[in-house]
Amino acid sequence: MLDLEYLSQNDKGHLAINGYDAVELTSEFGTPLYVMNEETIRNACREYKKAIDKHYGGKGNVIFASKAMCCKEICRIMDSEKMGLDVVSGGELYTAIEAGFPASRIYFHGNNKSPEEIKMALEYGVGSIVVDNLDELEMINNFAINKNTKAQVLIRITPGIEVHTHDYVKTGQVDSKFGIPIENGEGINAIATVQRCKGIEFKGLHCHIGSQITEEEPFIRTAEVMMDFIKTIKDKLSITVRELNLGGGFGIRYTEKDKKVDYVNYISKVSEKIKSKARQLGVSVPYISIEPGRSIVGEAGLTLYQVGGVKAASKSKVYVSIDGGFTDNPRYALYKSEYTVINASKMNRIEDQKVTIAGKCCESGDIIQEDVMISPVNVGDVIAVLCTGAYNYSMASNYNRITKPAVVMIGKSGPRLIVKRQTLEELIQQDM
Ligand SMILES: Cc1ncc(COP(=O)(O)O)c(C=O)c1O
After folding, report:
1. Residue 248 Cα: closest atom of ligand 1
2. Which residue of the set 75, 197, 207, 362 is catalytic?
3. Is the N-terminal amide bond of 405 cis, ω within 30° of 0?
């Protein structure tokens, strides 16, 4: 099994999550159930912050990409860890503000922010708006002038870097839908335009090359490209870029095959590159921010389901039907993502059954994982799917009018409900 420090087997042969019996948790909170381990989340924040502090002498910060997992309690945890927060919609922004997260530490992203969302960001006094395109820039400028204020902006740049990850999570390549490319001269034009905007204060640049990236080299090349661009901006426009946000994207382990990514080493290598480039180009090292999401919450979470049926469809295909599916975890359907699956009720038995974990939606593609080895499984057993802390709850849907699961956080004083299970009444609340 994938070794996660907070998982073990108890004397009943059940999966224990930070010492708490997974089967008992499902009796108390129901299934499907997302469970998160607070210490793992906090440790990840601290590890990143320590590394950034070490390499940039306090002139940098870590911003949690809340698209990975957004709810009020997660925002509160990020606030208490003194993290920044990346939001990408009015909904994420509203959640953060309602959780008491300081607007000044929020970075507002998105490639199509609506006028209402921009007004909301200016109203709340969001610390940084990350501008994706020139139409948006014009809109922000106009709203800010009307409000007699200056919006603090970073410009999102497409660095033209290809990475080895799923096509759907690549974002930094030349033809990306995100950001403004450097290559065709649009990047420098955008900065020149910003300079003329009376309602805008230009803080710096942002880039993000993709997600679930396990090599360090693309991050180093990105840093290089961005530093070269900072030099171009200085030479052509006499503007000093004060902040460089390098985005997120650091991969995590989903199965035993995945190697552990050494984030600290990545930060150290990127900082070496940034410092050497700054010396070579005669520019100063900007304030550096990074924006991890998955690597802060991904390995800290898992999903528990109850088995409703076991069916041999053919000699080689056995379906284990669980009471959730791609409504709570769409990642296999979207990207064929691999996961570690275990029978949390029978950890003490040999994993000698090859099964396919099928969701309950009316779609053949509603699969959580295909042909995985688990211990003998019966109706009523609890199945655990590991490393679902990122892009699961936040991607959940109500397809087939299935209600969204609850989220439980295991902290120092034990398990606590941080998101209630959606009820049938809530499901039809908006229906007229
Ligand atoms: C702009 C931006 N920043 C940060 C992230 C976080 O990426 P990850 O969760 O892979 O660290 C994303 C995710 O795609 C993103 O689009």
Report:
1. 11
2. 362
3. no
